[in-house]
User: Fold ATP-binding cassette domain-containing protein from Streptomyces chumphonensis.
Amino acid sequence: MIELDRLTKRYGTTVAVDQLTCTVQPGVVTGFLGPNGAGKSTTMRMMLGLDRPTAGDVRIDGEHYDRLRDPLNHIGALLEAKAVHPGRTAYNHLTVLAQSNGIPQKRVPEVLDLVGLGSVAKKRPKGFSLGMGQRLGIASALLGDPKILMFDEPVNGLDPEGIHWIRNLMKYLASEGKTVFVSSHLMSEMALTAEHLIVIGRGRLLADTSMREFIKENSRSYVRLRTPEPERMRDVLATAGLTPVATEDGALEVDSVESDRLGELAAEHGLVLHELSPQQASLEEAFMQLTAEAVQYHAHGTGKGA
Ligand code: ADP
Assistant:
């Protein structure tokens, strides 16, 4: 579990993280979202003791990071791929890490197999693809078998197979009861991976809720229908107090109504339907709606994660 209590970080006059209070729970993948410059990286750095809070507190399983006796046994993090010694083999890189952190040597081949690097364990990372570097970073994070795992933009630069693999790994770790905290700017990917969301904007908490609730609360849901008699359908809907919107392809979109009700209305009036489909908004739409006011650099769009 990761607990944030009014966590705050200022850089001069910039408030990067502003009184953030929330808890990242075990057993689910929690997505960490926010526009560029929202304060995600700063928050993650403070969680790992790499940055000191200006005010407030962050606790890892009830302790401050720098008071954990063997940090790698509590929290593993993938912050940036390629943060490995380029001349050292994957096996040696992990061995050094294990030795300096009191982790048994037998974990090294275990995690190499877990991330699918068993066959290249004795090769030097400088010949690694980005995906292999990412897998090695994940192996390092898993080495101490920590209960908490943090991934900052883990799928950046990966091919579809690598993305699929990381997604399943994160879900597997959560199903094992671990706390999995992941940031990504790829909304479609996040929608497939995370069950819970923490969203920040300008350093402040904007949402701390399930993926399902987040999408429901922050987007328009509607039903799309097509009929060969759109004019008559409009009249029927108007009588029922509903105002459809016509689309370019000749369909009608109706807000604030269940598809069941529309189907029944059509049947009552002998109207043929060629399509009746409830439209679920995407995470991206919900995110854009919620963060529209909080977007700090939307005119630039060139920063990290743009
Ligand atoms: P995100 O990861 O969500 O893109 P960051 O945590 O990187 O956001 O940045 C949050 C804010 O803090 C931004 O305005 C950024 O410019 C500022 N910031 C981050 N790190 C530093 C730093 N070392 N010095 C000064 N300002 C910083």
The mean pLDDT is 88. Residues 222-279 form a domain with the Alpha-Beta Plaits fold (CATH 3.30.70).
